[in-house]
From TrEMBL, chain A:
Keyword Transport: yes
Annotated compartments: Cell membrane
Protein name listed in UniProt: Putrescine transport system permease protein
Keywords noted in UniProt: Cell membrane, Membrane, Transmembrane, Transmembrane helix, Transport
Keyword Transit peptide: no
Record field: transmembrane: 6-26, 84-104, 110-130, 166-186, 207-229, 263-284
Protein's organism: Roseovarius marisflavi
Residue ranges occupied by any ABC transmembrane type-1 domain in the UniProt entry: 78-284
UniProt xrefs under CDD domains: TM_PBP2
GO biological process: transmembrane transport
Protein family according to the UniProt entry: Belongs to the binding-protein-dependent transport system permease family. CysTW subfamily.
Membrane disposition: Multi-pass membrane protein
UniProt lineage: Bacteria, Pseudomonadati, Pseudomonadota, Alphaproteobacteria, Rhodobacterales
Pfam families attached to this UniProt entry: BPD_transp_1 (PF00528)
UniProtKB/TrEMBL annotation, chain B:
Organism field: Roseovarius marisflavi
Family: Belongs to the bacterial solute-binding protein PotD/PotF family.
Gene3D superfamilies named among the record's database cross-references: Periplasmic binding protein-like II
Primary localisation category: periplasm
Any one GO cellular component localisation term in the record: periplasmic space
Job description of the protein: Required for the activity of the bacterial periplasmic transport system of putrescine.
GO biological process: polyamine transport
One GO MF term attached to the UniProt entry: polyamine binding
Coiled coil: none
Taxon lineage: Bacteria, Pseudomonadati, Pseudomonadota, Alphaproteobacteria, Rhodobacterales
Location of this chain's protein in the cell: Periplasm
Keywords: Periplasm, Signal, Transport
The name this protein goes by in its record: Putrescine-binding periplasmic protein
Signal sequence annotation: 1-21
Length: 296, 361
């Protein structure tokens, strides 16, 4: 009984927080736009009984998904989002790994403080932190004033409303999600392995490459997923820091939902986005499992 | 323990009931009222007023169509109001509870009837025009003394825009107003719903797009007032607020607002009561309070927008009632046009065109 509860709990969690919302979005994506409350049709009318349910299913169709293929805007936005998410994840890894490495190698009594410093920004609203970047990066902003006063530049740099600002915003916002899993992987690592490698004639750099990196692989993968997945659908950072030329799928979704009031097409965009994310992740995990079996 | 939970729940439920009976929740545009009026309403009526703001019709409409917004009074613009009435989002007003309705001005009511037949669902709060705000000194410096400040040539002719670009030009991020403006400029029907006619706006906008610094619907107020930008296509009252802020700051910036001489769009913001408003009685009390001549005049005197209330006119300051940019004379009034809501298919064409203008894709 207890065992059943242990298994049932995570499944109930998945069902309530993932599957049910997904089915609702899928249902909307198969509906048609309508001027009503809510703004789509058909809606399920349970009072009609079995006939109502049948009529409901008969009215569902895939035309919104077909529509997505007729305009290259959607594909361009998906590709552009994937590209931005990929580069941003790479940058976050490059910045985050050394921090996690430093934390894991810091003296024991420092670690809680360092951990605190990584988590501390979460105590302020995410929106306020992104807004602050607008003040830092604008033409008259602190960064430009600082660089001008140092004499490093003679003309203010245009950073705000460019893709650079979007990358800065994403790396800043998601950095803790990269640091924490890598840190926890590095912290568990057995230091004697490195000593053994050096005893056997490995240079420190080579030991880092051959031992530390592979042993922190799980942390790197977890961190990359935690950054990559939310970044693809990111809306707030590109709309505040990016210019109108920064095309991302989150923005397209917003326009479908608010400007076109077309919830069904917005639903279709969201379902496709989910598929784009889930299929590679499932394939990746399968591959991992197979490798583990082979090694085992 | 269970007893404690039950008591707490009961207390909460009771609290919710009594609170909703005394609360009126209003959802209005940002920077759109004299806040002293909100306090006056609470003192006069004893009702608690919860006042939230938005800055785009789209956000309001999505809340209305999703249902259960929890608001008692909302303020959509004409075309959006019409579509939401069709969707069944509003309830009919109970005129018996609105004795101040007699104060309304027929010149405005007759125009709002095209959105809300018989004005059965809404009252006019304010109205205005969409036009051009310009920093007089800088524009004349760049384009010469005879710069066309009152013409669409200023913002839609690439030759002028090229010279103004570096100085900063903002456009509203509101396709339903920018595209009719372009159509008017090229001599088409601004209210056209024909996708082929709407497509004619594209080359005009694409030609000036490189010189537009930003598409935004509220930043231009500060931008113009501080002298950060030179020209904004925006809403009359907002630009006039910028003009006054600049004058107060005494920073040498002189802003002028013009409804384009080729013809400008006239719009109406209407107060209405959602069909599922928790406190419709309180909503009527609020509408009646707003239609009071002195209250409405106080609001207009504060935000520099004209209102649809005839009786309020004797309380308006000369700065407002005497300014043809706010209360246009008969000739200008004839030159203003209104638009009707786009059907869903056409809306998609308009949004797509707008995305293309903004993102280049």
């Amino acid at each position: 009984m207890r065992r059943f509860a242990l298994i049932a709990l995570p499944y109930a969690w998945l069902l309530a927080l993932f599957l049910v919302p997904f089915i609702i979005v899928l249902k909307i994506s198969l509906s048609d736009i309508d001027l009503a409350i809510p703004p789509y049709t058909p809606t399920l009318d349970v009072s009609e009984g079995w006939a109502g349910i049948k009529a409901f299913f008969r009215a569902l169709d895939f035309e919104n998904f077909v529509f997505l293929t007729t305009d290259d805007l959607y594909w361009k936005a998906y590709i552009s989002s994937l590209k931005i998410a990929f580069i941003a994840t790479l940058l976050t890894l490059l910045v985050g790994y050394p921090i996690a490495y430093g934390m894991a190698n810091a003296p024991d009594h420092w670690r809680p403080t360092l951990m605190m410093l990584v988590i501390l920004p979460f105590w302020t609203s995410f929106l306020i932190r992104v807004y602050s970047w607008m003040g830092i990066l604008s033409t008259e902003g602190y960064l430009n004033q600082f660089l001008l006063s140092l004499g490093l530049i003679s003309e203010p740099l245009t950073i705000l409303n460019t893709p650079t600002a979007v990358y800065i915003g994403i790396v800043y916002t998601y950095l803790p999600f990269m640091i924490l899993p890598i840190y926890s992987a590095l912290e568990r690592m057995d230091g004697s392995l490195l000593e053994a490698a050096e005893d056997l004639g490995c240079s420190r750099l080579k030991a880092f490459w051959l031992i530390t990196i592979p042993l922190s692989k799980t942390g790197i993968i977890a961190g990359c997923f935690l950054v990559f997945i939310p970044t693809i659908g990111e809306f707030v950072i590109p709309s505040l820091l990016g210019g109108s030329q920064t095309l991302m799928i989150g923005k397209v979704l917003w326009e479908e939902f608010f400007n076109n009031r077309d919830w069904p097409v917005a639903g279709a965009v969201a379902v496709v986005l989910l598929l784009i994310l889930i299929i590679p992740i499932v394939l990746f995990q399968r591959n991992e499992q197979k490798q583990r079996e082979l090694e085992g | 323990m269970r007893h404690l939970i039950m008591t707490t729940t009961a207390a909460l439920a009771l609290g919710a009931i009594t609170a909703s009976a005394e609360e009126v929740r209003v959802y209005n545009w940002s920077d759109y009222i004299d806040e002293a009026l909100l306090e006056k309403f609470e003192t006069e009526t004893g009702l608690d007023l919860i006042y939230d703001v938005f800055d785009s019709n789209e956000v309001l409409e999505t809340k209305m169509l999703a249902g259960g917004s929890g608001y008692d009074v909302v303020v959509p613009s004409g075309t959006f109001l019409q579509r939401q009435i069709t969707a069944g989002a509003f309830q009919k007003l109970d005129m018996d509870k609105l004795p101040n309705h007699a104060n309304m001005w027929d010149v405005v009511s007759s125009r709002t009837e095209q959105y809300d037949p018989d004005n059965a669902y809404s009252i006019n709060y304010m109205w205005g025009t969409t036009g051009i705000g310009a920093n007089v000194g800088k524009v004349k410096e760049l384009l010469g003394e005879d710069a066309p400040l009152d013409s669409l040539e200023l913002v839609l002719n690439p030759e002028n825009m090229q010279k103004l670009g570096d100085c900063g030009v903002h456009f509203l991020d509101a396709p339903a107003e920018m595209i009719p403006m372009v159509l008017k400029y090229i001599g088409e029907d601004p209210d056209s719903h024909d996708p082929e006619v709407i497509a004619k706006a594209e080359p005009i906008l694409m030609a000036i797009r490189p010189y537009i610094q930003k598409f935004h619907s509220s930043e231009y107020i500060n931008g113009l007032a501080n002298g950060d930008i030179c020209v904004a296509v925006g809403w009359s009252g907002d630009i006039l607020q910028a003009r006054d802020r600049a004058a107060e700051a005494d920073n040498g910036v002189e802003i002028v607002y013009n409804a384009a001489k080729e013809g400008a769009q006239m719009w109406f913001d209407q107060m209405a009561i959602p069909v599922d408003a928790p406190n419709p009685d309180g909503a009527h009390v609020f509408l009646n309070f707003i239609m009071d001549a002195q209250n409405m005049a106080a609001a207009s005197n504060y935000v520099y927008y004209a209102n649809g209330n005839k009786a309020s006119q004797e309380y308006l300051v000369e700065d407002v009632i005497g300014d043809p940019a706010i209360y246009p004379d008969a000739a200008t009034l004839d030159n203003l046009f209104t638009t009707t809501p786009y059907p869903a298919k056409v809306q998609r064409v308009v949004t797509r065109l707008w995305t293309k203008i903004k993102s280049g894709t």
